[in-house]
Every structure is written in C-alpha cells, then in structure tokens.
Amino acid sequence: MKKIEEFWYCVAPQDDIPLPDDTQNEQQESYKELIGLLELYDNFKKAHPDFETVEIVKSLMLQKPKTISSFRKLIDISDKRLYLDLTYLINYYDISGIRFVDTNRESLVKHSTTYFINYLENGKHKDLFALEVAKYFCDRGLADSLEAFHSLTEEQLSSIFTNLIINRETLHRDAKLRGHGVEQAFAKIFKLCGVSIFPANKDVEPMGEHDPNVDLSTMQIIPRNTKNQNCHSFDLIIKDTDGKIKILVQSLIHTSDPGQYGVNKSDETVDIYRRIGAYNAEVAQEQKVYLLGSVDGVGFSENPNGTIVKMLDAFDDFFQMHTLFKIPLFLQKIGMINNVLGIAFDKEYFGNIAIQHFTETYLQPLGLKDFTNEDITSYKCVRAGKAVVIFK
Fold first, then answer.
1. How far apart are the two ends of the chain, measured CA to CA in Å?
2. Pairwise CA distance, residues 307 & 100, whole Å
3. What is the DSSP string of 139-154?
4. 370, exposed or middle or buried, with CB in 10 Å at 0-12, 13-18, 19+?
C-alpha cells in the first residue's frame, strides 16, 4: 500500500472519532429544560388566556431569563446566531432616546448569551428588552413551534428532542470536541509507552492547556509569537530522557469539508517539516527531531490533493484512530523504547492485504512479530486502535 492508500483504508468515520472522556452528556439535561419550558408556557397560558404569545414569551423570560436559550432551540437557532442577532439589536435600538447599551451605534461590541441573560435579570430596561427579544423569537416562528410541541405526547416530544433538536444542537460542539478526543486518545498511548509527554496531563485533560509553541530553529518551547516564522504550535510534544524535544505531534482531524483552513494547515505542515529538516541538518543524529501526524476523517475526501496527499510525505510517520498501534512501533524505531514484541491485528477490521502491508512495512524492519493468530493471554497487552500491542 502507498501512504494515501493506507490512510483511506484505515480512515475513521465520524462515529469512530471519540469525544474527550470528560465530555458531559447534556442530552438529558437539555430535554428536562425544554420539557420544563413547555410546562411553564402551558401553565402561564392557562392562567392568562387573553395573552398573546409574544406577551407570554416576554413574561417567561423575565420570570426565568435562562429560558432564552431554550426558546432558540425550538426554532433551530444556534447560540452564536442568537447572540450575534441580539448584539445587533441592542446596538441599533434607539427609540425615544432609550438605548439598551451605553456605547454609541458606531461602536458595536459583541456580547455573549450570558450577557443577555444577565440583562434580562438586572438590565435598566429589561422589560422593554424582553419585549424586543420576544418579538425576535415570534417573528421566527416561535408561536407555531410552541403550539405544535404543546400538542405532542411525552413519547413524541422525547423522540423529537433526542433525534432532532438536541442532536442538531450538539453537532457543532461535538465536531470541535472530537479533535480533543483524538488528542487524548493518542496521548494515552504515548503515556502507556512510558515516554514523557508535554503537556503532561494531555491524556487526562485534553483541553486543560493551550497547545505549546516551539521555535523550530532552536527546538525550545516558547510563548506564542506570530512575528517569529519559526514559531509553530503542536498538539503534543514528546521529550527524551534529557528533557529535550524528540517528537512533535500535529493533529488534523476533518470529519467534514476541511475548506480553506485545511489547505492552509497542510501548507503549514509542509513548511514545518522543511524547518525541522533544516534544524536536523545542523545537529547530531541523536538530537534529531521528528514530526508525527495524527490525521484522520472522511472530510479529507473533499479536497485530498490540496490537503492530505501533500501532508503525508511531510510527516516522518502518521497514525489514525484505527492505527494508534503505530505509535509504539515508531517509538521503538527511533530507539525511545525497546519493549515491543509485536502486534495482534483485529481480523474483523483488517483484511489479509492490510495485515501483510503493516507486517512488511512496520513489523519486519524492526524484527517484530505478527501475533494475529496466536494466544496472547500471557503477555502484557495494550489495545491501540484496531490492534493489540504486545509488550515484554
């Protein structure tokens, strides 16, 4: 197999790209919030049968400001769309000399949803603001949505919320988080191999720290410096026993179209590899630094030549979620560890051609064994992707 053939053979669908371990499952909480909102609406409507929907929505937001986030879900508006639209609203509102903010119209400042929740609680003109927000929601079909949801059974509501509203709500969030899930997954494998990783807690808290920046001309970790062309950020750094940088890991996961961002990042990867090569040309062999790529996702199929194809040759090696077993093999190849005996491949995932490829390309050059059809119960085993790594 060529590199690109290996990539496509082992590429992970979105469902196989993990979320971080500590990601909260918000579905049940969101469901309860939405059910609670519908109950509030129902009770308020019964108590005030003459109220128009816009008046009910206004009253509910003043009674419980956080309902602003629940209302937007019922009309399929994202949190970002909401706070940007309301940012515009408060900046341009000027009736009879009343403004919701102190800034001038020519000085628009973005505000978060939390800001608007706080305004509904404590704002000087919160009654008037609540009315404007209620109009905003009702102009976008909230009245029809409330009536439609009000008529559904609990089972129907549960199905709609779970399969449509909540899944759609978390789709964008999860897309971002999956990248951190991959970082956590490969950080765990490096940790299990006994090497020093930086940030040291990446395997436990993948979102705990900012990605470290490295000056590729000196291989020193430095603060971010956009004016320094040798300064680049990496998702994980592997240090040798002397505390010096040995491996730089760059992770690029695209479950959907990578767009121009993906093209730019792949160009950056080629530049990084060139700079690392320039550094390595000036140092002794034992000081050589390697670039590993964590690259995965079917989204690369949108523009393979502009992204993944040119990147694969800019890595000393690459791995995917299904081929995490390549990490200990690479560490053994460059002499950082010496306790890997071989690999047992998952035959339900890998066909004979793929197993032969990995055996001939990665195992045999290191003198390692293919344990696929053997009893490995007496060995120390670590699952890494779609294979088990056998250690001494």
1. 29
2. 46
3. HTTHHHHHHHHHTS-H
4. middle
pLDDT attached to residue 160: 75
Question: In the predicted model, is pLDDT for residue 35 greater than 60?
Answer: yes
**109-155 residue pLDDT tens:** 999 999 999 999 999 999 999 999 999 999 999 999 888 887 777 77
- Spatial distance between the Cα atoms of 385 and 319, rounded to a whole number of angstroms: 10
Distance CA 347, CA 160 (A): 39
- The helix/strand/coil state of 375 is coil
Q: Is 149 in contact with 141 (CB distance < 8 Å)?
A: no
Residue 239 to residue 303: CA distance in whole angstroms: 34
**Which residues, in sequence order, are CB contacts of 26 under 8 Å at separation 6+?**
166, 170
Nearest by Cα to 116 from 91, 143, 146: 91
Scanning the structure block, which residue is given the tokens 């964590």?
Answer: 294
> Model-level pTM greater than 0.85?
no
**For 319-324, what is the mean pLDDT?**
98
Residue with tokens 């291989």: 219
- Using CA atoms, how far residue 289 sits from 90, 132, 228, 234, 310, in Å, is 53, 59, 20, 13, 20
Report which of 275, 78, 244, 308 is spatially closest to residue 170, judged by C-alpha positions. 78
Helix (H) or strand (E) holding 318: strand 317-319
> Residue 108's closest CA among 124, 88, 123?
88
156-209: pLDDT as tens digits: 877 777 666 666 666 666 667 788 899 999 999 999 999 999 999 999 988 888
DSSP state at residue 12: P
Helices within 339-390 (DSSP H only): 352-358
The three state secondary structure string of 99-127 is CCCCCCCCCCCCCCHHHHHHHHHHCCCHH
